[in-house]
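4.2 Preliminary Data

To establish feasibility before requesting continued support, the project team ran the inverse folding procedure on a target of 263 residues. The structure was first converted into the token representation described in Section 3, and no sequence information of any kind was made available to the design step. The complete token record follows.
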């Protein structure tokens, strides 16, 4: 178990020696896709999609404001044309974000800043904190948006195109398997620091500019723990057999061999 404090986001994602929560989610859904992209190295290049840039910039505003200078704000309406190409050449090694995207992120930041509970959570700790662990014999990597080791909690900052009400966010958790990530991060933190951690979601809506804070319940963390355990077992089976097909590893059950009673 180790900590890679200060490691860059780029270095974290470039590491292929450990599995991340995103890897485990992919393994649960499609082991062959994981094999093709992460073992064979056929992962398609991520294009500079607007929501990637906006998400990165907003996280920087909240978590690492000292790194805002890593971005260059293009004043034009669209990131295209000769003016944009010239702007890129004049701002090498910087992420380019448009003025419109910047305004959107600043409005979301204002929504976040209105919630003192959220700002209090993201204080007194460490931003973009990488923790390595070994779970079920598999090397794991996690990168917490924010962690307060002394107070024993982790914070994940989420932006959404939907509302931030609890029913909507519960559906988002199910859809994107956020419970797996929460449980894995808490377990990695336990392995590194030998103490239990709580997990909070700070959720900001892009559409209605609201912010809500949710604490992962013990039920949510238990469900997430079962999910990452299942993914790790499946990963090990695929690796041992060399067969990366989900159907091959699904358990079989013949009800004829048992007496099944209705309840």
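Position-by-position output of the design step:
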């Amino acid at each position: 178990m180790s900590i890679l404090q200060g490691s860059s986001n780029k270095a974290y994602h470039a590491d292929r020696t450990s599995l991340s929560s995103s890897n485990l989610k992919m393994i649960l859904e499609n082991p062959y896709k994981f094999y093709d992209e992460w073992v064979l190295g056929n992962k398609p290049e991520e294009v500079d999609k607007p929501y990637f840039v906006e998400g990165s910039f907003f996280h920087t505003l909240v978590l690492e404001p000292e790194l805002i200078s890593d971005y260059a704000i293009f004043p034009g309406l669209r990131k295209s044309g000769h003016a944009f190409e010239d702007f890129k050449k004049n701002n090498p090694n910087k992420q380019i974000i448009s003025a419109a995207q910047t305004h959107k992120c600043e409005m979301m930041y204002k929504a976040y800043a209105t919630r003192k509970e959220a700002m209090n959570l993201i204080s007194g700790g460490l931003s973009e904190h990488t923790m390595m662990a070994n779970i079920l014999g598999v090397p794991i990597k996690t990168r917490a948006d924010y962690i307060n080791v002394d107070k024993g909690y982790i914070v994940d900052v989420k932006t959404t195109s939907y509302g931030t009400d609890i029913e909507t966010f519960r559906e988002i958790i199910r859809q994107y398997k956020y419970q797996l990530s929460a449980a894995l991060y808490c377990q990695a933190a336990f392995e590194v620091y030998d103490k239990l951690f709580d997990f909070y979601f700070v959720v900001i809506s892009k559409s209605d500019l609201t912010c809500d804070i949710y604490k992962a319940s013990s039920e949510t963390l238990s469900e997430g723990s079962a999910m990452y355990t299942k993914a790790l077992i499946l990963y090990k089976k695929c690796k041992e057999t060399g067969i990366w097909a989900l159907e091959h590893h699904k358990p079989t059950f013949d009800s004829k061999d048992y007496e099944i009673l209705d309840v």
